[in-house]
Amino acid sequence: MAFLDDGSWSPEDARQFYDLIGTGSAETDLVMLIENKGAPVEAELDRSFDDGKARLNIGGYYWSVQVPESSSQNQVVPNNLIVARRSDAATATLASLLRTQEKDLKVVISAFKAGGDERAPDAQATFELVLENARICRLVLNSGGHWGVPSELVSISYRTVKVKSAPQKTTGLRGAVRECQFTRA
What we know:
This protein has helices at residues 11-21, 91-99, and strands spanning 28-36, 39-40, 56-57, 60-62, 65-66, 77-78, 81-86, 105-113, 127-142, 151-157, 160-165, 178-183. The protein is mainly beta. The longest helix has 11 residues, at 11-21.
């Protein structure tokens, strides 16, 4: 995908992103936690999690990290996280966080594998992106694409990101967690 000079997407780029994430997966549930000063942003997801905090449904995300071709060793560039979701009760709250430039958000993207009771409060994520000292830096509201309903693209910058992954045991619980951390200068 190409970005314009100001870092934004053209309408065509946004459409292509929605096409990439399609209609989701029956094998994985994707959710996002956004905490502002310890209080989670609430939406319309009626599901409990092991920490008791509310989550937002998401359709997909895009995150990349790269080493510039002309860089020296250990020069790694993590990029902003971009999340696609259907607009819901949380949309105005996300817009407010952008307007006030809250910059100490905690954002967690979690993937839960299907199989078992999705309402079980002890379900554990098998994949997570954890962003700290984050802020919402772009919000694109639109309709169309496969979803054909009011939708949004949320771009999130951050100071630190942790990538966590774990296998799912036959019991449905999560195995040993592996972690990698990137910090922006």
